[in-house]
Amino acid sequence: MTTVDPSAGLYGSILETGDGASSDGMVSFGGVRVSSIEAAQFVMMHRTGVMKEVGADRTEMAQRHLDKIRAARQMLIDLQDLYIFSASSKVYRDRCPITPEMEDFLKNDVNCSPEIFTNRLIFYASRVPLLPESVRNHYGLYLGEDGKLITYSDRAKEFDFEAKGGNREYQISGVRMIDRDSIDGLKSNVNNYIDQVNDSNNLFMTKFKQIVNLMNTALESANSLADKTNDMTKNLVSRW
To answer: Could you tell me the mean pLDDT of each successive run of 10 residues in the chain, 240 residues long?
Structure first.
């Protein structure tokens, strides 16, 4: 007797041939007597189902890779905007405000160690439109329809927003910041991170294509067996 036990993953069945089964050419498949061709079809169909589940998981993983690349590219844009924002005597000591999400991404995804500190940010209203939108929204530095700073918001008051002197100079406190001099180094780290994720994604997609090809092969094999069975049945009936 020959027994094939697919680790109980194939409908929890054991496929047996020989002894009593060989006399009528049937096999036991999940406790049901079927022909060997039908059993082979079920095996191929099951394999296709497994590959489909694997393919769905791989598709989700691929989307996460793309999300990481998209976030990193946005980080590059935001860092450049911060550089432009601070490159003026209208921003005190070249300070660049960042959000907790930016800090988390740089530390935990890009895996770099930015020099981040907490202090007050003194700036002129004319510089605010140059900030990344995510930074403006986090600190409540909203813009009006005319594109200029709205000088009051409940969110900004959480950071003690207030006028500093005259001539539309303001300040907020408790701001997480980086120095403009560190931005070039951070951009280099982010670019390296993008290269790494791209390389990983390319390798991943190559393996994913192999999974898809195996799935298609299994499905084609099952269909081919079904077609051959139908053709054989038609021939036998036509000669009866």
So the answer is: 43 46 59 69 68 73 88 98 96 96 97 96 97 98 97 96 91 97 97 91 73 70 66 59
Element (H or E) spanning 115, and its range?
none
User: Contact, 115 vs 179, CB < 8 A?
Assistant: yes
Distances (CA, A) of 197 to 112, 223, 236: 15, 38, 58
Q: Cβ-count burial of 168 within 10 angstroms (0-12 exposed, 13-18 middle, 19+ buried)?
A: middle
In this structure, what are the phi and psi dihedrals at residue 122, rounded to the nearest 5 degrees? -110, 130
Structure tokens at 224: 């081919």
Contact 112, 59 (CB under 8 A): no
- The Cβ of residue 158 has, within 10 Å, a number of other Cβ atoms equal to 13
Give the C-alpha separation, 226 to 212, whole Å: 21
Distance CA 62, CA 204 (A): 8
**Distances from the Cα of 11 to the Cα of 14, 29, 240, angstroms:** 9, 9, 36
Helix (H) / strand (E) element for 179: namely strand 169-179
